[in-house]
Each structure stands twice: as structure tokens, then as C-alpha cells.
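Late entry, written up from scratch paper. The run itself happened at the end of the previous shift, but nothing got recorded in the book at the time, so transcribing now.
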Amino acid sequence: MKNSRKIIVFDDDPTGSQTVYGCPLLFHWDKEILNKGINDPSPLLFLLTNTRSLSPQHAEKRLRDICNNLKEVFKENNLGLDEILFISRGDSTLRGHSILEPKIINQELGPFDATFHVPAFFEGGRTTVNGIHLLNNIPVHQTIFAKDKIFGFSTSHLISWIEEKSNFEIKAKDIASININQLRDANKSLVGKEKLIDFLLTLSSNKSVVVDGQSSFDFDILGSAIRSLGNKKRFLFRSAASLINSLSQIYSENNSLKNFSTLRLRGKDGNFKPGIVLVGSHVQLADDQLQLLLEESSCIGVQLPVKKIARIFEESSNESFLSDLENLWNKQLLDILDKKKTPVLFTSRGELSFSSMKQRMIFGVFLAKLMGRLVDRVSNRLGYIISKGGITTHILISEGLGIKSVNLKGQILPGLSVVCPCEKDKEDLPIITFPGNLGNKETLLESFKIMESA
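Output as recorded:
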């Protein structure tokens, strides 16, 4: 194991493992499954909490439950908290319970000397310079992600953003920073690295620290400095995916598996089974990617009318109507598969308005469960799945397909992971976990063509 400590990542949706490979991802967190994860030879263990889909109250409860189970498992395995490095993996476009989650982890598994906020994700064009978080060199508060109806924000200045998101519980004057110049100096000379280490040694009382980053070299030197401290300090990280590489020293380019289409399942006749594509994400990028995919002659769309489903959701007496619709959609999927075409199951575009954030979240889960059930009904016919959208993917795997843990095979494209069930009673069905905000207009089509190239 390259890293002397196990690294446990609390991932708020199932896509944060998008820069590493060869480690378990857990969708359930009972003690038996956690024990297996802790004892897996990989230095990395991801706990897919799906907290981004939950209200703050439910997210807090889920995290506390997981932490309590972890503490019992640590005790059974004679592991001390200082033998584990904890990461709260969050969205690189600053959405999610970014302040709440590390706060709860600190209360349950701390105390930590500092919490580092490191949202740069180089594979997706997210960088942080002079404390300003950027998406393709545009301040992220000027992008569509800042207008998120649940997790919106008004500033790209990370210190101000932490103050805003914490409702001023964390004051700007109390937040430290590690800037690009410090990291570059540490990379150039032993003196620079010693200065960085000296700074890390001064941190205490769960100090909030924002970290710049423009390339993997910046995070590699930070990871090296942190490892050099051993157990002298306990740090918690709220980060996007790129930092995980530098802390674990696992890099996707070192993965021996290159041709992911070979994971596609075959039927009894020896021929490759068809795939299915799900699109639940509602960001504009997902709309553009879906439109391009549907122009492919081998892809046929099955649209779920969100407004109609919302009316059914609001009236429990319509459950039988929903069941009839599910049967209709299931028949459409089977007909497409019979034609040896690829079904593209997607929700109608645009977002609905709800009376509260809680209602919107509950409906989002309801819709994702519906998509998961539909895929499960045809899963024995499938050779692979491409699932776009974090909540959609998490619920598809954990509830629709009933999978408790998967093994991360690697990345089919930068930031785009392929996982397979690691349970004896499940087929090794490859699932491409596709974040809603990843790539460009062609990325969904490109991933489809790679899987079809088998």
C-alpha cells in the first residue's frame, strides 16, 4: 500500500471516484459491508452516501449513522481514528451540503486540526486561483451551476463562499488559505516545501483552509507535505475528485485496463448484449448531450413525462395508473432491445417548481426510483448501462439493481468511471457513472460509441 493510512471517502453522489481505480465503492453501510471495505487491500474506500439528494436534516442523520457504524468497525479491527485519512468528497461546481458534511464528520470522527476546502477538479476544467474558483476560466458563480435551485450561491471567492454557506458561522477573517505561489515554491525547492510543512503544523482547532490548484502538480506537493507529517496532525478534506489522486497516489493513467468495451456482457449465443442509456440530469449540458445522442440512428428514446409523473406523485390514489404506465414503458424498452437498438431512457427536459426544497428533493428521488425499476426489469437483457446524473445513478445501482457494493474498474473517459458489482450473486454488468456536469456536448455520444466498439 503506497499510503500508510487507509483513506475513507464520504462521497455525496456516486461519481467522486472518477479519477482513481481498483477500489470498492459501498452503497450500504451496515457493519458487515463496512468490515469488508475496511479490509480490502486497496488504500481507498468510498462510502456513497448520496447526501446531495437529501435535506440537511436527513443528510446529517445519514452521516451520523455511518460514522457510528464506522467507529464500531474501527474498534473491532483495532484501528485508531488517527490511522485513517477522511475525505468529504463534494461537487467541483460548489453544490451540495459543503459546510454541513465536514462539520458532522468533525463532530463524530474528529477533532481535526483543520478542514481543507479543495474544489479544483482538473479533469473537468475546474481550477482555483487566488482563492477564486473557476470553471474553464470563468468564475463559477457566473455559470448555470450557481443558479441551482437548492444549492445556489453568489460568489466564486472561496473564503466569502464558506462564510455565506455557513450562514456566517465561519467568519472570513478566521479562514486561512494556501495559494498557488506557496504550492509552486514548495514544488521548486526544499525550502519552499519546509515552509509549507511549517504552515501545516501551525493549524489547529479545525481551522478552515481554502486551497488553490491549477494542475495535479499543485496537489501532489500538498499530498507529499501532508504525508510527511505522519500522525502529527489530523486533517479533514472537503474536496472534489482530483485531490484524492494526490493523497492516495493512485492515478487513472496507471490503470492496466485500457479497453473498457471488453467489459460488455455477452449473451448465451456469444454475441454482445445491447446497452441502455439513462439521462436524469437536468443541467443544460445534459440536455445538449442527450439531443446529440438521440440523433444516432441506433438509439431510440423513451421519454418519461415529468409533469404527468409529478401529478401521480401528488395523488397517491393514482398508483395503479403509474403501474400501467410502467408496464407501457417497459414494453417500449423491450421492443427497442428486440430490434437490437439502444434504448435511451430520459426524463422530459426542464425543471418543475415545487412548494419547498424538501418536496423537490423527495420528487427527485421518486423519479430516480422509477427509472431504476424500469432498468431493473430489463437488466437481464443488457450488456452495459450508461447512467447520467448523480442521484439517478446512485438510486439505479443501490435500489433499482439492488447492488450493495461495486468495484471501480477505471475511467472510460476523463472523469467518467466504469464500475461492476462485486457481489457473488450479481453479474459483472458494467455501469458507466456519468456526472450531470461533466464533459462537452459530444461526451455522452463518445462514451456510447466506445462501449459499442466491442
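The chain has two domains: 6-254, 260-452.
(Scratch paper discarded after transcription.)
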